[in-house]
Amino acid sequence: MLQELSSTSDADSSGEESDGEENGKEEGVDEDDEAEKANLPHYISRFRELSSQLESQGKVNPTSFQALVTMLGQQNLASAEEPDVEQYQSRLKAWEAEKRQLIQREKDLREKAEQERQERLAAKTAEQQA
Predict the structure, then answer these.
(1) Would you tell me how many other CB atoms lie within 10 Å of the CB of residue 20?
(2) Structure-model confidence comparison of residues 59 and 91, the more confident one
(3) Which one of 64, 69, 73, 130 has the fewest beta carbons within 10 angstroms of its own beta carbon?
């Protein structure tokens, strides 16, 4: 990032000089911007120094941001999914109970129909014998 700033500031300063010469230096760069540009090499060296100190102390994680986000997502996935899993399990239990009730009802109706058929058959047989 600092390299980008450094290269842009170099390009800006060279561009500003040529633009300034063409425009007769009518538009000058703000004094604060000039001071910051002058301090940019110092900022870059300080950043590199502090960055190397952090790396030597083991405080810099070499893992990519994408890998860290993925790892964090996987760690939190179970707790994030927990309410959905509980809701799914309760719905599944309700569905299974309803299914058992329907199966039992169908069985009872078939038994009742078979019993009525047997009764009609017995009544028909008794009627034919009489």
Answers:
(1) 15
(2) 91
(3) 130
CA distance 95 to 2: 61
Of 22, 46, 33, the residue nearest 13 (C-alpha): 33
Q: What is the pLDDT of residue 108?
A: 97
**How far apart, in whole angstroms, are the C-alpha atoms of residue 84 and residue 92?**
12
Orientation angle between helical segments 2-22 and 31-56, nearest 10 degrees: 160
Q: Sign of torsion, CA 118 124 126 128? A: negative
Cβ–Cβ under 8 Å, residues 43 and 2 = yes
pTM score > 0.85 for this model?
A: no
Neighbours of 13 (CB within 10 A): 13
Residues 6+ apart with CB under 8 A from 9: 37, 40
Domain ranges in the chain are 1-60, 62-130
